[in-house]
Task: structure prediction
Amino acid sequence: MTTDTTTPAGAVPGTAAGPAPVTGAGTALETLTIAKAINRALADELAADEKVLLMGEDIGSLGGVYRVTEGLKARFGADRVVDSPLAESGIIGTSIGLALRGYRPVAEIQFDGFVFPGFNQITTQLAKMHARTRGAATVPVTIRIPYGGGIGSIEHHSESPEALFAHTAGLRVITPSNAHDAYWMTRQGIRSQDPVIIFEPKRRYWLKGEVDVSADGHRGVSAFQAQVVREGTDATIAAWGPLVPVALAAANAAAEDGRSIEVIDLRSLSPVDFDALQASVEKTGRMVVTHEAPTFGGLGGEIAARLMERSFLHLEAPILRVGGFHLPYPPSRVEEQYLPDLDRILDAVDRTFAY
Amino acid sequence: MSDDVRTDIAEAARSFGITPEDYMLPARHLIRIVDQDGTVLSTEEQGAEPGHDYPVPADEDLLEAYRRLVAGRRINDQNSALVRQGRMAVYPSSHGQEACQVAAAACLGEGDWLFPTYRDTVAVISRGVDPVEAMTIFRGDWHGGFDPRQHKVGIQSTPLTTQLLHAVGVAHAARLRGEDTVVVAMCGDGATSEGDFHEALNFAAVFHLPVIFFVQNNQYAISVPLARQTVAPSLAHKAVGYGMAGERVDGNDLVALLAVLERGVRLVRGGAGPLLVEAHTYRIQAHTNADDATRYREDAEVQEWLAKDPVKRMRTYLTDRGLLTEELQSRYEQEAEDIASALREGMNRESTPDPQDLFAHVYSVPTPQLAEQSAMLAEELSREEAS
Result:
């Protein structure tokens, strides 16, 4: 059985892409926010493939509530950047039908808390269509969902439901943490033959970074691989999406205390790149996994359990989780106390050294 | 309301032969062409509105539809028998609804699509899917037995209305591709309570898509009668809220069904926008073999509907018109028997689904986790085999 994430396919799972050629071609660096990087990725995919179309609420003339699709309707027309009726199940369900006829719909769900009217279509139909038809029908639907807290909003605008989707077989779930990844992971997600959920860290939409938009700017890295974003030797912090910058800040603070912390950005939440996590924890012997979602039933637990199975004899301490409490996401005036922050992560790192 | 939408409605109304005001009203009468005793009703009794025209299909089309009707009844009863014999896990029979099944498939052209429910196996087979492949789901070999793109038929799935939105998406794709595809999206009376029913009709109307929503009102959603699904005067009335025309037809009158659906397909293909057709019929048997219909309905009601049987009615009508000879009747019966025998043979053939197949199609390329789990199962099975 062949697998896709073990080879650093630059492009796309489900295509025959091997490792991307390492060429001497120059890079083309642009400084973009995450929102602009996604906008650029959508534009580039719309331009590259006439079967790509966007569908969602307010994505046309308004350019989306976060302006991620700004300018795309004007450039590509109302048939390719479709303002849909206000109905999430309709957006997902009709995207499945479009995909059955060769389109690559990219659906936008306006906020994390509004995906649930579409949850039935995602879990009972989109995720299962390929298996149900023994692979005869591919449904390359991409669903973009801004997620996570820290934006001072009201209920249903700050949630992290990624575990629900990662738990569902048949979906790929990815989440970028920086502008370069946002650009490439969006493009690779759209090109995947499988349904892909892209969780976009909305509180980082305005975070700027350098994006290599040259043809092989992905540097051979697949959207379904994790990446070490800071090397270290004493402990590993595994994070994704909005918490990667927090994990990096925690690692920098720990460095002042003389601790060398490695930070892994998971990027892909289904499949999880356990090989990368295993390599890191076997090097450092300690790991803290952090996510905004509640720890109970969360992905941190799965990661801790899997690494315990794989790397038990290499562990100097139990793998610790730092995540949300098992609460409905709190009102904005107390969300600061809910969200994992630098101190809470550092406390956990300290505890791994206490064993 | 935008000017575009106003124009669309005015044009649609004209194409349906009514005023825009009437267009927003539901069908007043159920269309019936052949009475339950097989006699043709006078034009006035057929229920058509002035301006509506439901041409009776050509003789050869009627005979072909009847041939499929006879086969459909036999398929239903053979499958129910196979469940009783333990050869299949479950079979939701459309016994009594075969006229709807046949008409839903017969009205479509080659490039058109059909999105059935789990009770619409006869329609699936009537559309050309191999009967044994169609039964794969109910035998428990796999969750789908055919390639939906090859047959232009959606895979049957048990959540009630998810397929309606897939149908709308396929119609949307047809519009974008400039193809004159028509999509028939099937559901039952219970399904009209689901949220996706609303979203599908609304999307189809807003995007002015070529979809016929074909509702088989068989009076029951497992045990719950229609009165608990809606208090609307009819299910066809639901079309009004979407700016869509709605029609009612006798679901046990194959001639009327063909006339209404073929006219619908013609109009929808011509750009009239979506259409809702409600067929009045009856689920003669229990929901499935696991259900006990005596707990929630009276036998007298079943007897009343048995008298309206679509097969008997069509046979009388065609015989009286001199189209159906004894010889043709025996040929159709023999063909139905051949299908039944192929089903028996197919279902009695031992098959051993390979559990390793489960890992092969979840993703276009198996993930490392699945590769690991597949190896784990293989190892477990080889140990079992060795012991």
In short: Chain A touches chain B through 56 residues (CB under 8 Å).
